[in-house]
Structure formats: structure tokens, C-alpha cells
């Protein structure tokens, strides 16, 4: 009888039908929260002294306050504020009022009048300043209320005459933040605009107020208000000579802002009849600040010069010359000079001392216009005693040289001289600056000699930055190419770990200078027209470096292969297979090595982008095919896309993304075509379950790779990835129900609730992309969402199973400019057969050197994994200082991994690889979209293999004795 009942249960469950039963209606509970205002009122009433009140207020500040309770709490605080006589307590209450006004969901417009009334009777200047700061918070919280903003500006104008500098500072800050769209205000018996009111305090007796006035005016500019040009001559330029460094610093920015607003305006030169463009005049005045007494002002002035791209070329070039410009003084005509000579009287009789001295007297202050400013400004900056100023000067030179090729040529010597600076950071910045302007310059032999001397530097960062510089720099003669090659070979001999960087440098050097490498080929390859020369050793890194240089030059010089020996052709075939990223495809006559450039082959057929689009459009017709034909079409398309990525590097990321996406669809299709779907539930656990579960797990892993390994994806592509992941989770839920029918009724409830939450999250995140997912799996489920949220687990499984079997493949739009994150471990190479020996229980430091491509924020997501032969796995998170950035989109990881293990009887290999850690919450911000509630999807974290594993031979041994 029991067996019969058990069989009956199995049969009923296999049909996945459940009879609905009536449940008692759940009672609704109403939760009431304790009033924060009442509790605060009780605490403040219990306070017997100001110290007790401060303690209660401090304790209250540590507790969160809900938006609906804020107004009541503020009323209680204001009530106690009026009763309190101690300034420190009122100051703390004023501070708390500002913090409460920032509460999300609370609109402070209902308490503006109360706050303004508190200002009328306040006698303490510190409390008044804090209350004005609270009004500033309220004003920024109400951007759509012009009436409130106007009232607050009037309050600020009223208290601008306060004797305390802190009150005046807060008033000016209020005017700067809220006076963006203010109408003229009544002050001093007339209507004045906000700018004129603020400019009155440029001459305040307190330097802190002068600084606040300048910052308020700059805030107006940031808010979209155009500053009046008259401020330039009357106030801003005068403040450059202020005694207070903070005032001078703010004045530098003010002068720069005005020079960008009115660059072509004409301003007079003092003590002269000449006129000058405003941007040129500002450039000269800011250049003079490079010699300021404060190093922070000098840094700001140097950085500001780099952004003044509209300055005239002759002023710009004068910054590199310490000699005074004769053109800055008005030249007199010959008639005027003769007239002055006649008016001077008789010639010198010698009876008077200096009676023949020039009658013209110069005021040294009037020569400071450009002569002591722009003249030699960058020379002073590059020779400054503070390395921060030197770095700022180098950056400014770089910015100006990028927009002016003629200036780039003139500042080349100065940047090259900075390669010998005593501070490593300055040397590194000067190398990067020269790299930025490399398209405008050509190095002479003497300059190249100075540059290459840096290859002796012990810093690996300096050497690699210099390799990067040589990659993109043009040289003038073949002697320069030969000199660069010799110095790089010395670098390779002294620092063998620079091998890959040196080879890459020579690759670009050869491709940029093929005509200069051509006459050097017989000497470099040691060939002779009549005699056979010995074949070099292919294991010599120096010889391989020479071949990389020659082969890359031969790509653009078709006559060069005629100078090659027979063994050179064989060596080319070897290097083309082993170092294909360094050796290009060449057309070598004879020897059967005619390799056509892949770009030419693609150009003769069709564009690669068109091929990618056609491949994806061909897959969209898969619904019209039977299962075997559809799978075969997906297989062929995936193969074509992967081959496209191999041949076209610019489409590698897009093609690989599409191939991986279609691979997920193929796995899903195969899993849904398994025979287990046509079997009874009691039998499906024994057949095909393992294969389907493995496919489902692989689909999930691939979707995380699609989401986190590829950068540049649009939101619709991310939605497609999450759509596939949703299908994989539905398949996982159905498989669990069919493989464990006995316990499904009890264990599936939580899984079904989690899936419904995932579906709701998908709907919220990709609401705008849902029209592009029509006729898909998610759309079918969302239509039945109200019924799914209240149905039983067995009914949900029934719907999922039917929807999965009927869902079609969603078309994928071709992605553009997608990059795939990747990594390659350079050290250790894994080629050594000699084990690294160390004492068991102690530590072995293993140097790890890796290159990272298109990895965003590697300091937070890249980890090193060490896998031991016994299955133990250690994951190490490198320090942020171990990451370098040699170029855009590329990073370098140079770190040490510490290994330790018990003793082994014989040497064994360990595996070292790089992992990419991911978190769905950090990537998409699910918590915000779900009102702060954690979901199963939001807490998913894991790692993705980022590089191929490298095997290292180690041998821990027992300690001697």
C-alpha cells in the first residue's frame, strides 16, 4: 500500500501539477516606529548643564533619522535653540540642523522662515556663521525654488557688513552658490548685481575674506554666469601681488578664467601707448607667478600656463628664453631720437659726474609686463628647487607643445635635459611628456645620446617608459638607428628581464625607419657578398632583437630581403611561428614563404565589419531550421567569428564577444534538446542529468565572462547577457525539480522566490531595453509576472519548462569598439628545468611580471592565484603600488608572490595565473535599483581566469641537521 502511494506521488509530480488549496488570510501588521523627536525632547529636558546637552546632541548625531521624522526633530532642536544660552550648544544645534536638512526625501522649504528668524537675535559670530552655512545647505537642496534663493541672497547681503570674517565668508559663499540667476539687489541705496557686490570685498582688510570673494566669483562662473571684463584690470591683476598666498592662488585662477572668456579683448600696456590682447597680457602676468615666493602658487601658475592655448606664438616662445624682449618696449623713430639728442644740450664736458647719462629713466615696475614674466618662465619652472614645480612645468610644456609643432621643436632640448633630474618622478614625467609630443619632433644624434643614457637607470619604470618613448619617436640619421640599437642591446645585456620590452621597442623602431635600417642590414646580419659567414645562434636574445628590427623594416622596404642569407629565411620562419606578435608577415621571394598580409586578403573580399554583421544576421534565421541544422549553423558561425578575431585585431573584442554569446546559446540549445525532457521524472536523474548540469554551469560562467571581461559594451548588450543568465538559472531550477522530486516541494520554495526576485531585478534594471527583447524568454515571463509571484513552486517550474522549450534566439546587435581584458605572464617563464629550492616552512619570494590589456581599475580586481600539486590554492591580492600604467589601456604588474609548503620528496610544478575578481553589485548597482534590498544577484562574487597558467618547478626541502 505504501509503495502504491509513493508511486502515485511520483506520477503526480511528473505532471508538475498541484491542486490549489485555500489558505487562511494573513493578518496585516502595522509597525509603528518610536518618535525620534519625542526621544530627543526627553533627553534635552533631562540635561542639567550645557555639557550634558552637548553629550545628548552628540549621541543623537550618530543615529540615523528617517525622512518623515526630520521636521519634528528640527522643531524640537529649534525650540531648544531659543532657550539655550550657551554658545557651544547653539553652535552644535546649528550644525545638526544643516545635517538634517540634507536627509534624502526631506524638503526643507517648510522651515526656511524659522531658520531666517534665528539670525535676527543671534549675537555670537561663530553661531551666526554656522547658521548661514545651514542656509547654504538649504539653498542647494532647493534648486527649483527661486523665491527661497532670492530671500537667502538678501539675508547674505544684509550680514555682509558683519565685523567677523567667518560671517562675511559664509555670506560670500552664499552669494557665489545661489546668486547664479539672481536679479539686481537693493544695497547701499541702489540696485546692484551680485558680481558688483562680491567684487567690493576683493579689497577687504582680511585676506581670508578676499580669498572667499574670489572663490565666490569663481563659483558664479562655474554656475554659468559670465564674469564682467572690467574685473580683470581693476581687481584681478592687482590681487596677483597680494601678500597672502591663498589670495594670489585664487587670483591666478580668476585671471585665467577672464583670459578664456575675453581672449581677443584689447588692454593697454601700463606706461606706454601700446595695446595687447588680453590673453597675452594674462599669460605674461601668470608667467610672472612662476617665480612666486610660495611653491604652491608656483605649481598652480605652471599648471595654468599649460591650458592657455590661445596665446600668441611669439609670447609662447619667449617663455624658453631668459633674455628680455626688445619688442615689448616702444621703439622710437630716428627723428625722435635726434630731437631728444638736440634737446639734451651740449656734449659732456667732463666737469659733471655722469652728465652724459641717458636722460630716459625707466621704471623697473613697468618692465615687468612680459620681460620678467613670460621671458624664461618655463626655464625658471624647470630649474625650481621644488620637484612639484618642475613636474608642473613639464606637464604645462607638454600641453602647449601638443597644440604647437613649432613650440614642440623649441622645447625639445629642455625636456631632454630633464631626463637627468635627481627625482625619479620628474624624470618619468619628462619621458611621458616627450612621448606625448613625439609626433611633432625628430631627435638629433646629440639629443638621442642624452635620451639613451637613461637606459642605465636602475628603475624599471624609467627604462620601460623610455622604451615606450623610442617606439614612437623619429630619428634623423642611420647613425641614430645604430646608436639606439647598440644602447638597447647593452640594456638587454645588463637587465635581461627587459627582453620583451626591448624587442617590442625594436619592432617599432624598425617599422618607423625602414630606409635608415636598409644600409645597416649587411653589418647587422654580418653578411658578405662573396664569403659565407657563420650562422648566428638563435638562442641569443641580442641576435633575435636584431632580427626583429630588420624584419619589421623589411615589411616597408621590398628591396631589403635581397640582402638576406639563406639562414635568415629559416630564422624568419622560426620567429614568425614563435614570436608572431613581433615579426610581421612578409613576402619573401623563393623559399616558399610567400605570406600575404591578412589585411589585403580581407580588403579583396569584403570589409570585416560587414562580415561580422552578416554573420549575426544569418544566425537570426535559426528559428526556421530544425535542431541539427540550427546547431550546425551556430558551430560554423562561432568558428568564423573566432577566426575573424584572429585576423583582425581591431575587431578581436567584438568578434570574440559575439562568438562567446553564440556559444552560450548553443549550449542552451543542446541542453534543451536532451532526451531527459521526454522522460518520466523518476528516470531523468539517472540519464543525461550530469551533462545538462555541466552545460548549465558553463553557461553561467560564460555570462560572467561576457559581462566583466569586455569593456565598451552598451546597455542593450549587457541586457542580452543577463537574459541568457536568466535562462540558465531557469534551467537550473527546472533541473533541480526534475532530478530530486522527493524533496522538491520543501526545498524549491526558496529557490523559486530567489528566481522571481531575479526576474523583478531584470525588469527594473533593463526597463528601457525590454522593447529590444521582444519574443524572448524574459518577455514571456514578465507577461505572467503577477501570476508567477503568487503561484506554487510546481506551477512556476511548469511555466519555466514550457517557456524555455518555446523561447527563441534573441538577435544580437553587432557591438562596436569592444575590448577584451587579457593578461600575459612574462616572468616566471616556466621554461627552466632547475627547481627553485627553499627550506620547508620558510618563504620563497617568486617574482611575477605580467602585462594587462584593457583591464579597468586593476588595483581592485586583479589577483594572483597559486595552485599547489596537492590541490591547495592561495589567492594573493597585489598592492596598488605594484601596478604601472605604461600607456592607455595597458597596465604592468610587477610584484612578488611568497610561497611556502611542507617538504616534498621530489620537485613538482606549481601553477601561477592571474584572476579577475568581479562583483555584480559593484558593476551594476543593483542595491540602488532595488531600494537598498540585497538580492541573490546583487551579492554574486567570483573570479575569472585572466591569463594562461605558468608552471614553476619548486622543491621545498627539510632543514639541514
From TrEMBL:
The answer on whether this UniProt entry bears the keyword Repeat reads: yes
Q: Which GO terms describe its biological process?
A: snRNA processing
Q: Where is the Integrator complex subunit 4/Protein SIEL C-terminal Ig-like domain?
A: 825-957
Entry's Gene3D superfamilies? Leucine-rich Repeat Variant (1.25.10.10)
Q: Which residues form the signal peptide?
A: none
Principal location class: cytoplasm
Spans traversing the lipid bilayer: none
- Which InterPro entries does the protein's record reference? ARM-like, ARM-type_fold, INTS4_8HBD, INTS4_C
Question: Where does this one sit in the cell?
Answer: Cytoplasm; Nucleus
> Which SUPFAM superfamilies has this protein been placed in?
ARM repeat
Q: Domain INTS4 8 helical bundle: where?
A: 610-815
This entry carries the following GO cellular component terms, namely: cytoplasm; integrator complex
> Which Pfam families does the record cross-reference, listed alphabetically?
HEAT_2, INTS4_8HBD, INTS4_C
- Keyword Nucleotide-binding in the entry? The reply is no
| Entry keywords, A to Z | Cytoplasm, Nucleus, Repeat
Known PANTHER family for this protein? INTEGRATOR COMPLEX SUBUNIT 4
Record family assignment: Belongs to the Integrator subunit 4 family.
Give the protein name, as stated in the record.
Integrator complex subunit 4
Amino acid at each position: 500500500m505504501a509503495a502504491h502511494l509513493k508511486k502515485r506521488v511520483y506520477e503526480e509530480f511528473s505532471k508538475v501539477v498541484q491542486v490549489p488549496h485555500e489558505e487562511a488570510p494573513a493578518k496585516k501588521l502595522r509597525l509603528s516606529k518610536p518618535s525620534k523627536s519625542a526621544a530627543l525632547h526627553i533627553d534635552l529636558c533631562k540635561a542639567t548643564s550645557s555639557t550634558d546637552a552637548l553629550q545628548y546632541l552628540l549621541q543623537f548625531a550618530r543615529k540615523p533619522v528617517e525622512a518623515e521624522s526630520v521636521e519634528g526633530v528640527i522643531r524640537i532642536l529649534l525650540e531648544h535653540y531659543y532657550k539655550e544660552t550657551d554658545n557651544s550648544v547653539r553652535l552644535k544645534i546649528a550644525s545638526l540642523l544643516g545635517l538634517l536638512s540634507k536627509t534624502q526625501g526631506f524638503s526643507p522649504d517648510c522651515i526656511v522662515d524659522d531658520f531666517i528668524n534665528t539670525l535676527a537675535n543671534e549675537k555670537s559670530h561663530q553661531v551666526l556663521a554656522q547658521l548661514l552655512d545651514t542656509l547654504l545647505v538649504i539653498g542647494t537642496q532647493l534648486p527649483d525654488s527661486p523665491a527661497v534663493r532670492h530671500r537667502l541672497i538678501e539675508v547674505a547681503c544684509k550680514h555682509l557688513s558683519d565685523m567677523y570674517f567667518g560671517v562675511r565668508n559664509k555670506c560670500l559663499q552664499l552669494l557665489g552658490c545661489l546668486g547664479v540667476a539672481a536679479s539686481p539687489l537693493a544695497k547701499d541705496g541702489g540696485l546692484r548685481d551680485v558680481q558688483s557686490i562680491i567684487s567690493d570685498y576683493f579689497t577687504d582688510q582680511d585676506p581670508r575674506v578676499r580669498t572667499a570673494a574670489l572663490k565666490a566669483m569663481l563659483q558664479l562662473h562655474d554656475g554659468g554666469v559670465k564674469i564682467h571684463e572690467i574685473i580683470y584690470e581693476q581687481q584681478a591683476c592687482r590681487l596677483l601681488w597680494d601678500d597672502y598666498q591663498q589670495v594670489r592662488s585664487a587670483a591666478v585662477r580668476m585671471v585665467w578664467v577672464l583670459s578664456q572668456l575675453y581672449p581677443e579683448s584689447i588692454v593697454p600696456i601700463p606706461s606706454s601707448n601700446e595695446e595687447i590682447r588680453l590673453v597675452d597680457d594674462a599669460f605674461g602676468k601668470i608667467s610672472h607667478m612662476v617665480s612666486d615666493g610660495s611653491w604652491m602658487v608656483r605649481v598652480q601658475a605652471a599648471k595654468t600656463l599649460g591650458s592657455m592655448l590661445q596665446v600668441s606664438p611669439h609670447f609662447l616662445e619667449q617663455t624658453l628664453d631668459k633674455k628680455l624682449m626688445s619688442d615689448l618696449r616702444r621703439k622710437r623713430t630716428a627723428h625722435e631720437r635726434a630731437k631728444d639728442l638736440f634737446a639734451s644740450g651740449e656734449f659732456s664736458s667732463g666737469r659733471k659726474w655722469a652728465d652724459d647719462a641717458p636722460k630716459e629713466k625707466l621704471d623697473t615696475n613697468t618692465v615687468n609686463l612680459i620681460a620678467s614674466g613670460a621671458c624664461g618662465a618655463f626655464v625658471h619652472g624647470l630649474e625650481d628647487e621644488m620637484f612639484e614645480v618642475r613636474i608642473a612645468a613639464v606637464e604645462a610644456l607638454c600641453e602647449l607643445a601638443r597644440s604647437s609643432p613649432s613650440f614642440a621643436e623649441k622645447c625639445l632640448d629642455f625636456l631632454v635635459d630633464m631626463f637627468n633630474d635627481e627625482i625619479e618622478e620628474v624624470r618619468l614625467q619628462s619621458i611621458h611628456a616627450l612621448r606625448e609630443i613625439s609626433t611633432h619632433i625628430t631627435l638629433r644624434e646629440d639629443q638621442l645620446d642624452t635620451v639613451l643614457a637613461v637606459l642605465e637607470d636602475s628603475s624599471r619604470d624609467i627604462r620601460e617608459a623610455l622604451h615606450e618613448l623610442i617606439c614612437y619617436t623619429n630619428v634623423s640619421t642611420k647613425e641614430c638607428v645604430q646608436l639606439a640599437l647598440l644602447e638597447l642591446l647593452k640594456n638587454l645585456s645588463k637587465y635581461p628581464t627587459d627582453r620583451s620590452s626591448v624587442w617590442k621597442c625594436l619592432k617599432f623602431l624598425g617599422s618607423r625607419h625602414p630606409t635608415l635600417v636598409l644600409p645597416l642590414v649587411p653589418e647587422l646580419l654580418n653578411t658578405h657578398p662573396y664569403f659565407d659567414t657563420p650562422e648566428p645562434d638563435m638562442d641569443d636574445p641580442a641576435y633575435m632583437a636584431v632580427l626583429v628590427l630588420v624584419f619589421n623594416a623589411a615589411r616597408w622596404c621590398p628591396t631589403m630581403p635581397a640582402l638576406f642569407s639563406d639562414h635568415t629565411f629559416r630564422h624568419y620562419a622560426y620567429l614568425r611561428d614563435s614570436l608572431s606578435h613581433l615579426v610581421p608577415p612578409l613576402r619573401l621571394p623563393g623559399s616558399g614563404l610567400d605570406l600575404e598580409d591578412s589585411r589585403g586578403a580581407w580588403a579583396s573580399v569584403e570589409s570585416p565589419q560587414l562580415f561580422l554583421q552578416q554573420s549575426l544576421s544569418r544566425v537570426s534565421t535559426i528559428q526556421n531550421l530544425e535542431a541539427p541544422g540550427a546547431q550546425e549553423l551556430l558551430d560554423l558561425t562561432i568558428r568564423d567569428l573566432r577566426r575573424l578575431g584572429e585576423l583582425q585585431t581591431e575587431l578581436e573584442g567584438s568578434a570574440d564577444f559575439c562568438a562567446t554569446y553564440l556559444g552560450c546559446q548553443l549550449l542552451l540549445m543542446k541542453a534543451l534538446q536532451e532526451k531527459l525532457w521526454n522522460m518520466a521524472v523518476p528516470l531523468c536523474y539517472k540519464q543525461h542529468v550530469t551533462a545538462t548540469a555541466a552545460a548549465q554551469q558553463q553557461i553561467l560562467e560564460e555570462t560572467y565572462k561576457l559581462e566583466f571581461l569586455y569593456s565598451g559594451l552598451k546597455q542593450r548588450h549587457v541586457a542580452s547577457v543577463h537574459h541568457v543568465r536568466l535562462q540558465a538559472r531557469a534551467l537550473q531550477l527546472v533541473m533541480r525539480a526534475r532530478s530530486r522530486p522527493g524533496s522538491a516541494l520543501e526545498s524549491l520554495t526558496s529557490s523559486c522566490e530567489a528566481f522571481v526576485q531575479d526576474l523583478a531585478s531584470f525588469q527594473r534594471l533593463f526597463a528601457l531595453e525590454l522593447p529590444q527583447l521582444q519574443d524572448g524568454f524574459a518577455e514571456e515571463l514578465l507577461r505572467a509576472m503577477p501570476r508567477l509571484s503568487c503561484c506554487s513552486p510546481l506551477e512556476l517550474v511548469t511555466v519555466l519548462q514550457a517557456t524555455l522549450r518555446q523561447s527563441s534566439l534573441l538577435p544580437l546587435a553587432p557591438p562596436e569598439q569592444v575590448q577584451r581584458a587579457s593578461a600575459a605572464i612574462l616572468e616566471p617563464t616556466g621554461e627552466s628545468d632547475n627547481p627553485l629550492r627553499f627550506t620547508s616552512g620558510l618563504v620563497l619570494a617568486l617574482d611575477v611580471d605580467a602585462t594587462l590589456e584593457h583591464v579597468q581599475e586593476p588595483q581592485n580586481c586583479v589577483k594572483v592565484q597559486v595552485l599547489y600539486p596537492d590541490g591547495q590554492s592561495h589567492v594573493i591580492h597585489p598592492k596598488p603600488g605594484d601596478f604601472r600604467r605604461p600607456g592607455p589601456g595597458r597596465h604592468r604588474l610587477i610584484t612578488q608572490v611568497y610561497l611556502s609548503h611542507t617538504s616534498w620528496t621530489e620537485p613538482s610544478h606549481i601553477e601561477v595565473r592571474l584572476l579577475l575578481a568581479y562583483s555584480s553589485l559593484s558593476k551594476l548597482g543593483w542595491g540602488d535599483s532595488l531600494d537598498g534590498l540585497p538580492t541573490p544577484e546583487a551579492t554574486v562574487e567570483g573570479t575569472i581566469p585572466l591569463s594562461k597558467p605558468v608552471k614553476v618547478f619548486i622543491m621545498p626541502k627539510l632543514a639541514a641537521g
